[in-house]
Amino acid sequence: MTAAEDRSGVVDLQTVRLLLDRLGVSTDDLVANTAPRTVPTFDEYLDRIADAVSPGSQRAYATYWRRIREVWGHRRLDEPTASEIKQLAESAKRTAVVRSNSRGGRSAAEHMISALRCLYQHAVADGLLSEAANPAVRVAKPRRLASTRHALTDGQLTQVFAAASTTGNDPELDTLLLRLHVETACRRGGALALRHIDLDVEQCLVRLREKGETVRWQPVSPSLMQHLLAHAEQRGAGAGTREQLLRYRNGRLITRRRYDYIWQRIGRHLPWVATQQISTHWLRHTTLTWVERNFSYAVARAFAGHTGRNDAGPTATYVRADVHEVAAATAALTGEPHPLQQKLPSVITRGPNQGRNGALVEGTRTPKAQGVDLR
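The structure corresponding to this sequence follows.
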């Protein structure tokens, strides 16, 4: 056999393998002389995977999966093409609910494509489709626009806390919630998942469980820790409790709806809050901006609980900040000493914004504003 004939055979074999891959037929199917697995319809398959995704994914995709059922429920997973998925995403974009912070339905289109990608990823993992037969990966998501969120000023933060602490049906709860978010820069999910067993009283740490199933111990001020303990005792989340810590006076657990109520109420008293659609995530921006300006990017990244490698480059592996540095930032932020702060190496107790004695120089901007104190 000549070299050319040998090469031709290799090319033919590659062509056959590519064809089988596109048809979703494996070599095992051919050897066993059996037909490929039957591909289910969208209605059938969505029922299967409904409980296979996280609660967060269920909340994010439920609306879009319902839309997929309405349009394609009777069709098999292998029938829609990439162009049809693009059309469905554009339809979601056009019919998106128009709100004051809407951005032309781009988010709806992005979530529709993400919902389909999630569905098809499960189908590929179950062996119903091949990677090459997945049409959702061939549809690009809309480019995200820059966020309009930014750090609040000291004056704005003071106004927010004043409105929260003097209005509403449970100002103590609302002020505690806002202070927790300012001190830890946690997300809503982290606050709602907080339990009594997540409080390390001796070291003034709270265990935050947030999106992506991430878990971290976050330093808090001694006074906030005492207020969390008092809240738990007064509202039925006693020591050792594995249930949610944050509750109403009658012991009922709060939900995400409490946040909606807080910001709608504050917006009625502060028109700029309603106009700019200020939310709890703006507090995260406020705290992390201050930490980055006064400490470093590495400390801000650790403070935020960011662990991904795609936003900081390989250098982040070597300059990663630890909990003691986050504790130092928390102490400066709140103006209270922290139990873990004293364990910092002396070489990092002075920064570019610090005086000779290690304290922040006078005039350094911090997000701790009047009205934040819970005492």
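The chain has two domains: 42-138, 154-348.
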